[in-house]
Protein backbone atom coordinates (compact mmCIF):
# COMPACT_ATOMS: atom_id res chain seq x y z
CA UNK A 1 0.00 0.00 0.00
CA UNK A 2 1.10 3.54 -0.68
CA UNK A 3 0.72 6.14 2.06
CA UNK A 4 0.61 9.91 1.68
CA UNK A 5 1.37 11.95 4.80
CA UNK A 6 0.95 15.70 5.09
CA UNK A 7 3.18 17.74 7.41
CA UNK A 8 3.04 21.37 8.51
CA UNK A 9 5.80 23.65 9.76
CA UNK A 10 4.57 25.55 12.81
CA UNK A 11 5.90 27.47 15.79
CA UNK A 12 7.55 25.04 18.22
CA UNK A 13 5.06 23.91 20.86
CA UNK A 14 7.34 25.05 23.70
CA UNK A 15 7.58 28.63 22.50
CA UNK A 16 5.68 31.29 24.40
CA UNK A 17 3.65 33.08 21.75
CA UNK A 18 3.94 36.87 21.37
CA UNK A 19 1.30 38.91 19.59
CA UNK A 20 2.63 41.72 17.36
CA UNK A 21 2.12 45.17 18.84
CA UNK A 22 0.07 46.27 15.82
CA UNK A 23 -2.32 43.36 16.51
CA UNK A 24 -2.13 41.95 12.98
CA UNK A 25 -0.70 38.53 13.79
CA UNK A 26 1.51 36.47 16.06
CA UNK A 27 5.19 37.44 15.84
CA UNK A 28 7.07 34.63 14.09
CA UNK A 29 10.38 36.41 13.43
CA UNK A 30 13.35 34.60 14.97
CA UNK A 31 11.03 32.09 16.63
CA UNK A 32 11.89 28.39 16.72
CA UNK A 33 9.78 26.43 14.22
CA UNK A 34 9.22 22.66 14.16
CA UNK A 35 7.07 19.99 12.62
CA UNK A 36 3.53 20.14 14.03
CA UNK A 37 3.37 17.46 16.79
CA UNK A 38 0.28 15.79 15.31
CA UNK A 39 2.05 15.57 11.93
CA UNK A 40 5.04 13.86 13.57
CA UNK A 41 2.64 11.21 14.82
CA UNK A 42 1.23 10.82 11.31
CA UNK A 43 4.73 10.30 9.88
CA UNK A 44 5.56 7.81 12.63
CA UNK A 45 2.38 5.80 11.97
CA UNK A 46 3.13 5.61 8.25
CA UNK A 47 6.69 4.45 8.91
CA UNK A 48 5.49 1.81 11.36
CA UNK A 49 3.10 0.50 8.70
CA UNK A 50 6.05 0.34 6.31
CA UNK A 51 8.17 -1.52 8.85
CA UNK A 52 5.35 -4.03 9.31
CA UNK A 53 5.38 -4.64 5.56
CA UNK A 54 1.91 -3.15 5.13
CA UNK A 55 3.06 -0.03 3.31
CA UNK A 56 5.41 -0.10 0.35
CA UNK A 57 6.02 3.63 -0.05
CA UNK A 58 5.58 6.68 2.17
CA UNK A 59 5.32 10.07 0.45
CA UNK A 60 5.29 13.27 2.52
CA UNK A 61 3.80 16.52 1.34
CA UNK A 62 3.82 20.03 2.79
CA UNK A 63 2.03 23.15 1.60
CA UNK A 64 3.88 26.40 2.19
CA UNK A 65 6.96 28.48 1.47
CA UNK A 66 10.47 27.10 0.80
CA UNK A 67 11.13 27.03 4.55
CA UNK A 68 9.00 23.89 4.79
CA UNK A 69 11.76 21.94 2.99
CA UNK A 70 13.34 21.63 6.42
CA UNK A 71 10.16 19.98 7.74
CA UNK A 72 10.02 17.64 4.75
CA UNK A 73 13.71 16.68 5.24
CA UNK A 74 12.88 15.86 8.85
CA UNK A 75 10.12 13.50 7.68
CA UNK A 76 12.53 11.93 5.16
CA UNK A 77 15.09 11.44 7.94
CA UNK A 78 12.43 9.67 9.98
CA UNK A 79 11.90 7.18 7.15
CA UNK A 80 9.64 8.66 4.46
CA UNK A 81 10.74 7.78 0.90
CA UNK A 82 10.21 11.02 -0.96
CA UNK A 83 8.76 14.46 -0.50
CA UNK A 84 6.63 17.04 -2.29
CA UNK A 85 6.48 20.75 -1.51
CA UNK A 86 3.50 22.65 -2.82
CA UNK A 87 4.99 26.11 -3.14
CA UNK A 88 2.67 28.78 -1.72
CA UNK A 89 2.85 31.57 0.78
CA UNK A 90 2.50 30.45 4.41
CA UNK A 91 -0.76 30.65 6.29
CA UNK A 92 -3.32 29.57 3.69
CA UNK A 93 -6.72 28.64 5.07
CA UNK A 94 -7.64 24.97 5.57
CA UNK A 95 -9.88 24.76 2.50
CA UNK A 96 -7.11 25.96 0.16
CA UNK A 97 -4.63 23.55 1.73
CA UNK A 98 -7.18 20.74 1.45
CA UNK A 99 -7.76 21.48 -2.25
CA UNK A 100 -4.02 21.38 -2.96
CA UNK A 101 -3.55 18.18 -0.95
CA UNK A 102 -6.53 16.55 -2.67
CA UNK A 103 -4.95 17.28 -6.07
CA UNK A 104 -1.62 15.84 -4.96
CA UNK A 105 -3.53 12.78 -3.72
CA UNK A 106 -5.25 12.41 -7.10
CA UNK A 107 -1.85 12.43 -8.82
CA UNK A 108 -0.20 10.11 -6.33
CA UNK A 109 -3.19 7.78 -5.85
CA UNK A 110 -2.27 6.64 -2.32
CA UNK A 111 -4.29 3.92 -0.58
CA UNK A 112 -4.18 5.79 2.70
CA UNK A 113 -3.71 9.45 3.62
CA UNK A 114 -2.54 10.14 7.18
CA UNK A 115 -2.67 13.66 8.59
CA UNK A 116 -2.47 15.28 12.01
CA UNK A 117 -5.82 16.09 13.59
CA UNK A 118 -4.95 19.77 13.96
CA UNK A 119 -2.09 22.23 13.63
CA UNK A 120 -1.11 23.84 16.93
CA UNK A 121 -0.96 27.33 15.39
CA UNK A 122 -4.35 27.79 13.72
CA UNK A 123 -6.02 25.10 15.90
CA UNK A 124 -8.54 24.53 13.10
CA UNK A 125 -8.94 20.75 13.04
CA UNK A 126 -10.40 20.85 9.52
CA UNK A 127 -7.97 19.89 6.77
CA UNK A 128 -8.19 16.09 6.99
CA UNK A 129 -11.97 16.12 6.95
CA UNK A 130 -11.94 18.54 3.99
CA UNK A 131 -9.48 16.42 2.00
CA UNK A 132 -11.68 13.38 2.60
CA UNK A 133 -14.76 15.31 1.46
CA UNK A 134 -13.10 16.63 -1.71
CA UNK A 135 -11.94 13.13 -2.67
CA UNK A 136 -15.17 11.51 -1.47
CA UNK A 137 -13.08 9.18 0.72
CA UNK A 138 -14.27 7.89 4.08
CA UNK A 139 -12.56 9.41 7.12
CA UNK A 140 -11.48 8.32 10.58
CA UNK A 141 -10.52 11.37 12.62
CA UNK A 142 -8.74 11.56 16.01
CA UNK A 143 -7.28 8.05 15.65
CA UNK A 144 -5.67 6.40 18.66
CA UNK A 145 -5.24 3.02 16.94
CA UNK A 146 -5.01 1.96 13.30
CA UNK A 147 -5.31 -1.77 12.66
CA UNK A 148 -4.53 -3.28 9.27
CA UNK A 149 -5.07 -7.00 9.82
CA UNK A 150 -2.87 -9.25 7.73
CA UNK A 151 -4.63 -10.11 4.54
CA UNK A 152 -7.54 -8.01 5.69
CA UNK A 153 -6.69 -4.91 3.74
CA UNK A 154 -6.05 -6.89 0.55
CA UNK A 155 -9.19 -9.00 0.83
CA UNK A 156 -11.71 -6.43 1.93
CA UNK A 157 -9.76 -3.21 1.47
CA UNK A 158 -10.91 -2.29 4.95
CA UNK A 159 -8.98 -1.01 7.97
CA UNK A 160 -10.18 -0.59 11.53
CA UNK A 161 -9.54 2.67 13.31
CA UNK A 162 -10.23 3.44 16.98
CA UNK A 163 -11.16 7.09 17.50
CA UNK A 164 -11.04 9.27 20.58
CA UNK A 165 -14.52 10.70 21.09
CA UNK A 166 -15.93 12.79 23.94
CA UNK A 167 -17.39 9.90 25.93
CA UNK A 168 -14.56 7.42 25.34
CA UNK A 169 -13.53 5.45 22.26
CA UNK A 170 -15.25 4.45 19.03
CA UNK A 171 -14.08 1.95 16.44
CA UNK A 172 -14.92 2.34 12.75
CA UNK A 173 -14.14 0.13 9.77
CA UNK A 174 -13.35 2.20 6.70
CA UNK A 175 -12.76 1.13 3.12
CA UNK A 176 -9.56 2.24 1.41
CA UNK A 177 -8.65 4.66 0.01
CA UNK A 178 -9.35 6.72 3.12
CA UNK A 179 -8.16 9.60 5.28
CA UNK A 180 -7.03 9.08 8.88
CA UNK A 181 -6.17 11.96 11.23
CA UNK A 182 -3.99 11.31 14.26
CA UNK A 183 -4.58 11.98 17.92
CA UNK A 184 -1.64 12.34 20.28
CA UNK A 185 -2.08 8.90 21.77
CA UNK A 186 -1.64 7.01 18.49
CA UNK A 187 2.10 6.49 18.94
CA UNK A 188 5.35 7.87 20.32
CA UNK A 189 7.34 9.40 17.43
CA UNK A 190 10.99 8.42 17.08
CA UNK A 191 13.98 10.73 16.75
CA UNK A 192 15.94 10.96 13.53
CA UNK A 193 19.49 9.57 13.79
CA UNK A 194 22.40 11.51 12.33
CA UNK A 195 23.10 8.93 9.57
CA UNK A 196 19.42 9.07 8.59
CA UNK A 197 19.51 12.87 8.52
CA UNK A 198 22.49 12.65 6.14
CA UNK A 199 20.73 10.06 3.97
CA UNK A 200 17.58 12.20 3.86
CA UNK A 201 19.50 14.92 2.02
CA UNK A 202 19.74 12.59 -0.99
CA UNK A 203 16.09 11.60 -1.08
CA UNK A 204 13.93 13.17 -3.81
CA UNK A 205 12.02 16.38 -3.06
CA UNK A 206 9.72 17.66 -5.81
CA UNK A 207 8.31 21.16 -5.94
CA UNK A 208 4.88 21.85 -7.39
CA UNK A 209 2.91 25.06 -7.67
CA UNK A 210 -0.83 25.62 -7.27
CA UNK A 211 -0.87 26.33 -11.04
CA UNK A 212 0.69 22.89 -11.74
CA UNK A 213 -2.09 21.37 -9.69
CA UNK A 214 -4.77 23.52 -11.30
CA UNK A 215 -5.96 24.92 -7.98
CA UNK A 216 -7.07 28.49 -7.62
CA UNK A 217 -6.36 29.57 -4.07
CA UNK A 218 -8.16 32.41 -2.43
CA UNK A 219 -9.97 32.97 0.80
CA UNK A 220 -13.08 34.73 1.93
CA UNK A 221 -11.74 34.96 5.46
CA UNK A 222 -9.77 37.96 6.67
CA UNK A 223 -8.14 38.61 10.01
CA UNK A 224 -9.48 41.77 11.63
CA UNK A 225 -7.15 41.61 14.62
CA UNK A 226 -5.04 39.31 16.76
CA UNK A 227 -4.82 40.24 20.42
CA UNK A 228 -3.29 38.68 23.51
CA UNK A 229 -5.86 36.85 25.67
CA UNK A 230 -7.11 38.64 28.79
CA UNK A 231 -4.55 38.29 31.57
CA UNK A 232 -5.63 36.70 34.80
CA UNK A 233 -4.98 38.86 37.82
CA UNK A 234 -2.23 37.46 39.99
CA UNK A 235 -3.55 35.28 42.75
CA UNK A 236 -2.42 34.70 46.28
CA UNK A 237 -0.81 31.81 48.08
CA UNK A 238 -2.57 30.50 51.14
CA UNK A 239 -0.80 28.91 54.06
CA UNK A 240 -3.15 26.06 54.93
CA UNK A 241 -6.12 24.02 53.80
CA UNK A 242 -8.27 25.77 56.40
CA UNK A 243 -7.37 29.16 54.94
CA UNK A 244 -8.07 27.86 51.42
CA UNK A 245 -11.55 26.64 52.37
CA UNK A 246 -12.25 29.92 54.16
CA UNK A 247 -11.28 31.92 51.05
CA UNK A 248 -13.38 29.73 48.76
CA UNK A 249 -16.41 30.10 51.00
CA UNK A 250 -16.18 33.73 52.06
CA UNK A 251 -14.10 35.54 49.44
CA UNK A 252 -14.64 33.74 46.13
CA UNK A 253 -18.00 32.36 47.26
CA UNK A 254 -17.71 29.34 44.97
CA UNK A 255 -18.15 26.82 47.78
CA UNK A 256 -21.18 26.91 50.04
CA UNK B 1 -31.32 34.14 6.42
CA UNK B 2 -31.85 31.37 8.93
CA UNK B 3 -29.23 29.57 10.99
CA UNK B 4 -28.96 25.79 10.89
CA UNK B 5 -27.44 23.87 13.81
CA UNK B 6 -26.49 20.22 13.57
CA UNK B 7 -27.82 18.91 16.89
CA UNK B 8 -25.60 16.64 18.92
CA UNK B 9 -27.24 13.69 20.65
CA UNK B 10 -26.89 9.99 21.40
CA UNK B 11 -30.35 9.06 20.04
CA UNK B 12 -31.72 9.30 23.60
CA UNK B 13 -31.03 12.84 24.72
CA UNK B 14 -29.87 16.15 23.34
CA UNK B 15 -26.27 16.91 24.38
CA UNK B 16 -25.87 20.10 26.47
CA UNK B 17 -23.29 21.53 24.02
CA UNK B 18 -26.12 22.01 21.49
CA UNK B 19 -27.79 24.45 23.91
CA UNK B 20 -24.72 26.70 23.87
CA UNK B 21 -24.72 26.59 20.07
CA UNK B 22 -28.38 27.71 20.10
CA UNK B 23 -27.41 30.78 22.14
CA UNK B 24 -24.63 31.60 19.66
CA UNK B 25 -27.10 31.15 16.78
CA UNK B 26 -29.69 33.50 18.30
CA UNK B 27 -26.99 36.20 18.41
CA UNK B 28 -26.69 35.85 14.62
CA UNK B 29 -30.36 35.57 13.59
CA UNK B 30 -33.68 34.96 15.28
CA UNK B 31 -34.67 32.08 12.98
CA UNK B 32 -32.80 29.06 14.35
CA UNK B 33 -33.32 25.57 12.95
CA UNK B 34 -32.02 22.34 14.43
CA UNK B 35 -31.22 19.22 12.42
CA UNK B 36 -31.62 15.98 14.36
CA UNK B 37 -30.15 13.11 12.35
CA UNK B 38 -30.26 9.80 14.17
CA UNK B 39 -32.17 6.58 14.68
CA UNK B 40 -35.21 6.14 16.92
CA UNK B 41 -34.45 9.58 18.28
CA UNK B 42 -37.99 10.84 18.99
CA UNK B 43 -37.17 11.92 22.56
CA UNK B 44 -34.32 14.04 21.19
CA UNK B 45 -36.76 15.70 18.80
CA UNK B 46 -39.13 16.49 21.70
CA UNK B 47 -36.28 18.03 23.68
CA UNK B 48 -34.99 19.98 20.68
CA UNK B 49 -38.44 21.41 19.88
CA UNK B 50 -38.81 22.65 23.47
CA UNK B 51 -35.54 24.62 23.50
CA UNK B 52 -36.22 28.36 23.71
CA UNK B 53 -35.12 30.15 20.56
CA UNK B 54 -35.43 27.17 18.21
CA UNK B 55 -38.03 27.83 15.51
CA UNK B 56 -37.87 24.60 13.53
CA UNK B 57 -36.61 21.05 14.08
CA UNK B 58 -35.80 18.89 11.09
CA UNK B 59 -35.72 15.17 11.70
CA UNK B 60 -33.90 12.51 9.71
CA UNK B 61 -34.69 9.30 11.57
CA UNK B 62 -33.20 6.27 9.90
CA UNK B 63 -30.87 3.41 10.82
CA UNK B 64 -28.22 4.85 8.49
CA UNK B 65 -27.84 7.85 10.81
CA UNK B 66 -27.62 5.84 14.04
CA UNK B 67 -23.95 6.66 14.66
CA UNK B 68 -24.01 9.98 12.80
CA UNK B 69 -21.11 9.06 10.57
CA UNK B 70 -19.54 12.12 8.95
CA UNK B 71 -19.87 10.59 5.48
CA UNK B 72 -23.66 10.49 5.47
CA UNK B 73 -24.56 13.37 7.79
CA UNK B 74 -22.38 15.78 5.77
CA UNK B 75 -24.21 14.91 2.55
CA UNK B 76 -27.57 15.24 4.29
CA UNK B 77 -26.64 18.74 5.50
CA UNK B 78 -25.54 19.72 1.99
CA UNK B 79 -28.94 18.67 0.64
CA UNK B 80 -30.78 21.01 3.01
CA UNK B 81 -28.16 23.79 3.08
CA UNK B 82 -29.72 26.17 0.58
CA UNK B 83 -31.44 29.06 2.28
CA UNK B 84 -29.14 29.09 5.28
CA UNK B 85 -26.68 31.93 5.83
CA UNK B 86 -24.96 30.11 8.68
CA UNK B 87 -24.44 26.45 9.56
CA UNK B 88 -23.25 25.68 13.08
CA UNK B 89 -22.20 22.68 15.12
CA UNK B 90 -20.79 22.31 18.61
CA UNK B 91 -17.01 22.16 18.86
CA UNK B 92 -17.20 18.61 20.24
CA UNK B 93 -15.56 15.59 18.64
CA UNK B 94 -18.77 14.97 16.68
CA UNK B 95 -19.06 18.54 15.40
CA UNK B 96 -15.37 18.75 14.59
CA UNK B 97 -15.62 15.48 12.69
CA UNK B 98 -18.59 16.42 10.53
CA UNK B 99 -18.67 20.17 9.88
CA UNK B 100 -15.41 20.59 7.91
CA UNK B 101 -16.68 17.88 5.60
CA UNK B 102 -19.84 19.88 4.96
CA UNK B 103 -17.79 23.05 4.42
CA UNK B 104 -15.58 21.41 1.80
CA UNK B 105 -18.61 19.98 -0.02
CA UNK B 106 -20.14 23.47 -0.08
CA UNK B 107 -16.76 24.99 -1.09
CA UNK B 108 -16.64 27.42 1.84
CA UNK B 109 -14.16 27.92 4.66
CA UNK B 110 -14.93 27.16 8.29
CA UNK B 111 -14.27 28.94 11.56
CA UNK B 112 -13.46 26.57 14.42
CA UNK B 113 -14.10 27.02 18.14
CA UNK B 114 -15.88 30.37 17.94
CA UNK B 115 -16.11 31.99 21.40
CA UNK B 116 -17.89 35.23 20.50
CA UNK B 117 -20.25 36.60 17.85
CA UNK B 118 -19.29 40.21 16.98
CA UNK B 119 -21.75 40.50 14.10
CA UNK B 120 -23.28 38.06 11.59
CA UNK B 121 -20.01 38.04 9.60
CA UNK B 122 -17.38 38.70 12.28
CA UNK B 123 -16.42 36.21 14.94
CA UNK B 124 -13.80 35.67 17.63
CA UNK B 125 -11.79 32.48 18.10
CA UNK B 126 -8.67 31.46 20.02
CA UNK B 127 -5.51 30.41 18.16
CA UNK B 128 -2.10 29.14 19.31
CA UNK B 129 -3.59 27.09 22.14
CA UNK B 130 -5.51 30.09 23.43
CA UNK B 131 -2.39 32.27 23.61
CA UNK B 132 -3.81 34.67 21.03
CA UNK B 133 -7.36 35.70 20.21
CA UNK B 134 -8.24 36.27 16.55
CA UNK B 135 -11.16 38.33 15.30
CA UNK B 136 -12.05 37.12 11.80
CA UNK B 137 -14.44 38.33 9.14
CA UNK B 138 -15.88 36.02 6.54
CA UNK B 139 -17.60 36.90 3.28
CA UNK B 140 -18.47 33.30 2.41
CA UNK B 141 -22.03 32.85 1.17
CA UNK B 142 -22.61 30.25 3.88
CA UNK B 143 -20.74 30.85 7.10
CA UNK B 144 -19.76 27.62 8.74
CA UNK B 145 -18.54 27.45 12.31
CA UNK B 146 -18.13 25.23 15.33
CA UNK B 147 -19.10 26.80 18.64
CA UNK B 148 -17.00 26.43 21.76
CA UNK B 149 -19.60 25.76 24.44
CA UNK B 150 -17.73 27.56 27.23
CA UNK B 151 -18.03 30.81 25.24
CA UNK B 152 -21.83 30.95 25.38
CA UNK B 153 -24.52 30.35 28.02
CA UNK B 154 -26.82 27.38 27.53
CA UNK B 155 -30.24 28.11 26.01
CA UNK B 156 -33.25 27.40 28.21
CA UNK B 157 -34.52 23.86 27.67
CA UNK B 158 -38.21 24.66 27.92
CA UNK B 159 -40.80 27.07 26.62
CA UNK B 160 -39.99 26.62 22.95
CA UNK B 161 -42.53 25.21 20.50
CA UNK B 162 -40.66 24.68 17.27
CA UNK B 163 -42.28 23.58 14.07
CA UNK B 164 -41.22 20.08 12.91
CA UNK B 165 -40.32 18.76 9.52
CA UNK B 166 -39.50 15.18 8.60
CA UNK B 167 -36.70 14.67 6.10
CA UNK B 168 -36.99 11.67 3.86
CA UNK B 169 -33.44 11.57 2.45
CA UNK B 170 -31.67 8.30 3.22
CA UNK B 171 -27.96 8.59 2.61
CA UNK B 172 -26.17 5.33 3.32
CA UNK B 173 -22.40 5.31 3.71
CA UNK B 174 -21.12 2.06 2.32
CA UNK B 175 -17.43 2.79 2.92
CA UNK B 176 -17.57 3.60 6.60
CA UNK B 177 -19.03 1.22 9.15
CA UNK B 178 -19.51 1.53 12.92
CA UNK B 179 -17.87 -1.39 14.74
CA UNK B 180 -18.07 -0.64 18.46
CA UNK B 181 -17.95 1.95 21.18
CA UNK B 182 -16.33 1.86 24.62
CA UNK B 183 -17.75 4.66 26.73
CA UNK B 184 -16.38 5.52 30.15
CA UNK B 185 -19.09 5.18 32.78
CA UNK B 186 -19.53 7.80 35.44
CA UNK B 187 -22.20 9.09 37.82
CA UNK B 188 -20.51 12.46 38.04
CA UNK B 189 -21.49 15.52 35.99
CA UNK B 190 -20.14 15.69 32.47
CA UNK B 191 -16.74 17.39 32.43
CA UNK B 192 -17.59 20.16 29.98
CA UNK B 193 -20.84 21.02 31.78
CA UNK B 194 -19.69 20.79 35.43
CA UNK B 195 -19.70 23.86 37.69
CA UNK B 196 -16.83 22.49 39.71
CA UNK B 197 -13.93 20.36 38.46
CA UNK B 198 -11.11 18.76 40.39
CA UNK B 199 -8.25 17.55 38.19
CA UNK B 200 -5.21 15.45 38.93
CA UNK B 201 -1.87 15.44 37.18
CA UNK B 202 1.33 13.45 37.16
CA UNK B 203 1.79 14.33 40.83
CA UNK B 204 -1.01 11.89 41.71
CA UNK B 205 1.57 9.13 41.28
CA UNK B 206 -0.80 6.39 40.11
CA UNK B 207 -4.39 5.66 39.10
CA UNK B 208 -5.44 4.41 42.55
CA UNK B 209 -4.54 7.75 44.07
CA UNK B 210 -7.21 9.43 41.89
CA UNK B 211 -9.65 7.96 44.44
CA UNK B 212 -8.38 10.70 46.75
CA UNK B 213 -10.06 13.24 44.48
CA UNK B 214 -13.39 11.40 44.57
CA UNK B 215 -14.12 12.37 48.17
CA UNK B 216 -13.71 16.07 47.38
CA UNK B 217 -15.62 15.67 44.11
CA UNK B 218 -18.53 14.04 45.95
CA UNK B 219 -18.74 16.85 48.48
CA UNK B 220 -18.62 19.58 45.81
CA UNK B 221 -20.70 17.79 43.17
CA UNK B 222 -17.66 18.12 40.95
CA UNK B 223 -16.48 16.35 37.83
CA UNK B 224 -13.03 14.77 37.83
CA UNK B 225 -10.53 15.78 35.17
CA UNK B 226 -6.91 15.07 34.43
CA UNK B 227 -3.87 16.53 32.76
CA UNK B 228 -2.34 14.94 29.68
CA UNK B 229 0.57 13.69 31.79
CA UNK B 230 -1.84 11.73 34.02
CA UNK B 231 -3.62 10.27 31.01
CA UNK B 232 -0.40 9.32 29.23
CA UNK B 233 0.89 7.65 32.38
CA UNK B 234 -2.26 5.49 32.25
CA UNK B 235 -3.69 6.80 35.54
CA UNK B 236 -7.11 7.59 34.03
CA UNK B 237 -8.89 7.22 30.66
CA UNK B 238 -8.25 9.90 28.05
CA UNK B 239 -11.79 11.28 28.00
CA UNK B 240 -10.96 12.98 31.33
CA UNK B 241 -8.21 15.02 29.70
CA UNK B 242 -8.48 18.79 29.97
CA UNK B 243 -6.33 20.78 27.55
CA UNK B 244 -5.65 21.84 23.99
CA UNK B 245 -5.90 18.24 22.83
CA UNK B 246 -8.60 17.27 25.30
CA UNK B 247 -11.64 19.12 26.59
CA UNK B 248 -12.01 22.84 27.09
CA UNK B 249 -13.74 23.69 30.34
CA UNK B 250 -14.71 26.90 32.13
CA UNK B 251 -16.29 25.95 35.46
CA UNK B 252 -16.88 28.29 38.41
CA UNK B 253 -14.19 26.47 40.36
CA UNK B 254 -11.27 24.48 38.95
CA UNK B 255 -9.01 22.69 41.44
CA UNK B 256 -5.70 21.54 39.92
CA UNK B 257 -3.98 18.93 42.05
CA UNK B 258 -0.43 17.85 41.27
CA UNK B 259 -0.58 19.61 37.87
CA UNK B 260 2.42 21.70 36.82
CA UNK B 261 0.43 23.85 34.38
CA UNK B 262 1.91 23.23 30.93
CA UNK B 263 0.69 25.51 28.09
CA UNK B 264 -1.33 22.65 26.62
CA UNK B 265 -3.22 22.14 29.92
CA UNK B 266 -3.80 25.85 30.55
CA UNK B 267 -5.39 26.14 27.09
CA UNK B 268 -8.20 23.92 28.32
CA UNK B 269 -9.00 25.54 31.68
CA UNK B 270 -7.70 29.09 32.00
CA UNK B 271 -11.14 30.61 31.44
CA UNK B 272 -12.37 29.05 34.68
CA UNK B 273 -13.79 31.63 37.10
CA UNK B 274 -11.71 30.64 40.12
CA UNK B 275 -8.62 28.45 39.86
CA UNK B 276 -7.09 26.68 42.85
CA UNK B 277 -3.72 24.95 42.64
CA UNK B 278 -2.37 22.43 45.10
CA UNK B 279 1.22 21.56 44.30
CA UNK B 280 4.34 20.93 46.31
CA UNK B 281 6.55 22.72 43.76
CA UNK B 282 6.17 26.40 44.54
CA UNK B 283 7.67 27.34 41.15
CA UNK B 284 5.09 25.37 39.13
CA UNK B 285 3.61 27.57 36.34
CA UNK B 286 0.09 26.70 37.51
CA UNK B 287 0.56 29.20 40.37
CA UNK B 288 0.78 32.03 37.82
CA UNK B 289 -2.86 31.52 36.83
CA UNK B 290 -4.21 30.26 40.15
CA UNK B 291 -6.34 32.62 42.23
CA UNK B 292 -5.53 30.59 45.32
CA UNK B 293 -2.39 28.52 45.52
CA UNK B 294 -1.46 26.09 48.26
CA UNK B 295 2.12 24.80 48.33
CA UNK B 296 1.67 21.45 50.02
CA UNK B 297 1.91 17.71 49.61
CA UNK B 298 -1.33 16.73 47.91
CA UNK B 299 -1.49 13.45 49.82
CA UNK B 300 -1.95 15.44 53.02
CA UNK B 301 -3.81 18.45 51.64
CA UNK B 302 -6.51 16.63 49.64
CA UNK B 303 -7.82 14.46 52.51
CA UNK B 304 -7.72 17.51 54.76
CA UNK B 305 -9.68 19.47 52.16
CA UNK B 306 -12.27 16.70 51.96
CA UNK B 307 -12.68 16.70 55.74
CA UNK B 308 -13.08 20.45 55.99
CA UNK B 309 -15.78 20.76 53.32
TrEMBL record, chain A:
It comes from the Bacteria. Its cofactor is AMP. Keywords: Electron transport, Transport. The keyword Transport applies. Signal peptide: none annotated. SMART domains: ETF. Gene3D superfamilies: HUPs. InterPro entries: ET-Flavoprotein_bsu_CS, ETF_a/b_N, ETF_b, ETF_beta_N, Rossmann-like_a/b/a_fold. SUPFAM superfamilies: Adenine nucleotide alpha hydrolases-like (SSF52402). Residues 23-217 form the Electron transfer flavoprotein alpha/beta-subunit N-terminal domain. One of its GO terms (molecular function) is electron transfer activity. The keyword Electron transport applies. One of its GO terms (biological process) is carboxylic acid catabolic process. Belongs to the ETF beta-subunit/FixA family. Heterodimer of an alpha and a beta subunit. The electron transfer flavoprotein serves as a specific electron acceptor for other dehydrogenases. It transfers the electrons to the main respiratory chain via ETF-ubiquinone oxidoreductase (ETF dehydrogenase). This is Electron transfer flavoprotein subunit beta. It comes from Marinomonas ushuaiensis DSM 15871. The lineage of its organism: Bacteria, Pseudomonadati, Pseudomonadota, Gammaproteobacteria, Oceanospirillales.
From TrEMBL, chain B:
Keywords: Electron transport, FAD, Flavoprotein, Transport. It holds the Pfam family ETF. It comes from Marinomonas ushuaiensis DSM 15871. GO terms for molecular function: electron transfer activity; flavin adenine dinucleotide binding. This is Electron transfer flavoprotein subunit alpha. The keyword Metal-binding does not apply. The lineage of its organism: Bacteria, Pseudomonadati, Pseudomonadota, Gammaproteobacteria, Oceanospirillales. CDD domains: ETF_alpha. The electron transfer flavoprotein serves as a specific electron acceptor for other dehydrogenases. It transfers the electrons to the main respiratory chain via ETF-ubiquinone oxidoreductase (ETF dehydrogenase). Residues 3-182 form the Electron transfer flavoprotein alpha/beta-subunit N-terminal domain. Heterodimer of an alpha and a beta subunit.
Amino acid sequence: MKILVSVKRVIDYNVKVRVKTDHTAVDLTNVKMSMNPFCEIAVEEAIRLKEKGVASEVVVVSVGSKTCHETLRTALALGADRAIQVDTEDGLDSLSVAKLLAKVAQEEAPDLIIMGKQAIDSDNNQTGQMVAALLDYPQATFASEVVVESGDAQATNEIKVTREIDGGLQTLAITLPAVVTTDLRLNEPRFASLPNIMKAKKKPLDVKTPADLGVDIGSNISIVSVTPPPQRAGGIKVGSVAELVDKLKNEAKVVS
Amino acid sequence: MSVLIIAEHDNKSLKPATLNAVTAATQIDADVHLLVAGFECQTVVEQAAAVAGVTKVMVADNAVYEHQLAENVSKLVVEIASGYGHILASATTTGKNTLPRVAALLDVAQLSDVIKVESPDTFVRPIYAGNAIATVKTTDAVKMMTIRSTGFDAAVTEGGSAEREVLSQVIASDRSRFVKEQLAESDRPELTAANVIISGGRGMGNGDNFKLLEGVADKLGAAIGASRAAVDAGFVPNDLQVGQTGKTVAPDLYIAVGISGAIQHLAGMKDSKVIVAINKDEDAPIFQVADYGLVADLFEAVPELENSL
